[in-house]
TrEMBL record:
Belongs to the catalase family. Has an organic peroxide-dependent peroxidase activity. This is Catalase-related peroxidase. PROSITE patterns: CATALASE_3 (PS51402). Its cofactor is heme.
Length: 373
């Protein structure tokens, strides 16, 4: 596999060929999907292999169109998690993860990572708010392979199916007169989707932290890990912050439009930021196909190592701006489960990439050099 950080995947040839490949690699033949503001489609209801079998099927194009309908079109930016900041650092493995996974990334040692901090939503210049979903995407590169993951700062996902996500996206569209979602439309959506209402209750019990640096980030979806002995277990993973401290404001102590990103830039300029990569091992009966449902807190956890971010960068050509955090780019030893969202996200991400790759690029809202350190 390639180990550079372009927005294609290893052995992909871009455009339509990448999209077709996204439908079949790792055995994922059906669906679209997303997590935390990333698109999704119901694999149970939409045939998706070699062509569209229904005129009303939820295709990658339709998902991208829906984001543009809700947030407007912003050339050159991602259709979701549009506002972001690139990052670089390392992952130092404890070696403990090798007990359940043969992937080289879990062997003792240190490997480079490329990352991206972001806010959910399709507005690249939106004002920072504490309650906006925060994302952290990472690419681990080791032994000629890559592991790509996109995580968010909520403990469960809001939707169990891609179709549910698609419907919620429209229900949450701000009204022109109020700037907020239509309460009747959202109430009707929640009545049709009690799993989302239940997930929202869980999310409300975990209020957001003060910034990116002290946030925990969750993979949410279940994947299968296989070790050298051939034993396979279901796993979810998370990043737990280590000694992040309080946000560091500028001399005026005034929170500006980009205060979450500005605080992150200042924090990284003062010290590396670290998170522990925790692997949670599922047991028989734990749901692997429904990201709205948490696993019992007593499940076994493994401290796999430390992710350390040593620098952040204004998004531009050559850094994480051009990385597609495709959840199906997996190293040997990790495979997709029966969760419908990851294979769906893979296809929608591909469509988002091919659109923005052909569009003119505008400067990023977040500029590292513009922050007073």
């Amino acid at each position: 596999m390639e180990t550079d950080h372009r927005d294609d995947v290893p052995n992909a040839r871009g455009g339509a060929e990448y999209l077709r490949g996204a439908l079949t690699r790792r055995g994922a033949l059906w669906g679209l999907g997303a997590l935390a503001g990333i698109a999704a489609v119901d694999v149970g209801g939409f045939a998706y292999a070699g062509g569209w079998l229904r005129p009303d099927a939820l295709t990658p194009d339709r998902f991208a169109d829906r984001f543009e309908e809700v947030y407007g079109r912003h050339d050159g930016f991602r259709r979701n998690h549009a506002k972001g900041l690139s990052a670089t650092g390392t992952f130092t493995s404890t070696g403990a993860g090798a007990a359940i996974c043969r992937a080289a990334v879990f062997r003792p040692g240190t490997v480079p990572v490329t990352g991206r901090f972001s806010l959910g939503g399709g507005l690249p210049d939106q004002p920072d708010k504490l309650d906006t979903v925060r994302g952290l995407g990472l690419v681990f590169a080791v032994a000629g392979q890559q592991w790509r993951t996109a995580m968010i700062n909520i403990p469960v996902f809001t939707d169990s199916t891609p179709q549910g996500f698609y419907e919620r996206l429209l229900a949450s569209k701000p009204r022109p007169d109020t700037g907020k979602a239509d309460p009747q439309a959202m109430a009707a959506f929640l009545q049709r989707h009690p799993e989302t209402a239940a997930a929202m209750k869980i999310i409300k019990q975990s209020p957001p932290t003060a910034g990116f640096a002290d946030s925990a980030y969750y993979g949410l979806n279940a994947f299968h890990f296989t070790n050298d002995a051939g034993t396979t277990v279901a796993v979810r993973w998370s990043l737990v912050p280590q000694g992040a401290g309080e946000p560091t404001r500028g001399a005026s102590s005034v929170a500006g439009k980009d205060f979450l990103f500005d605080d992150l830039i200042r924090a990284v300029s003062q010290r590396p930021l670290s998170w522990r990569l925790m692997l949670t091992v599922g047991e028989p009966g734990d749901p692997t196909n429904d990201a709205t449902k948490p696993w019992p807190p007593a499940r076994r956890t493994i401290d796999a190592g430390t992710v350390t971010i040593t620098a952040v960068h204004t998004e531009q050509a050559g850094n994480a701006r051009d990385v597609n955090f495709d959840p199906l780019v997996l190293p040997d030893g990790i495979t997709v489960s029966d969760d419908p969202l990851p294979p769906a996200r893979s296809a929608v991400y591909a469509r988002s990439f091919t659109r923005r790759a052909e569009e003119p690029k505008a400067p990023s809202e977040v500029n590292v050099t513009a922050v007073t350190l």
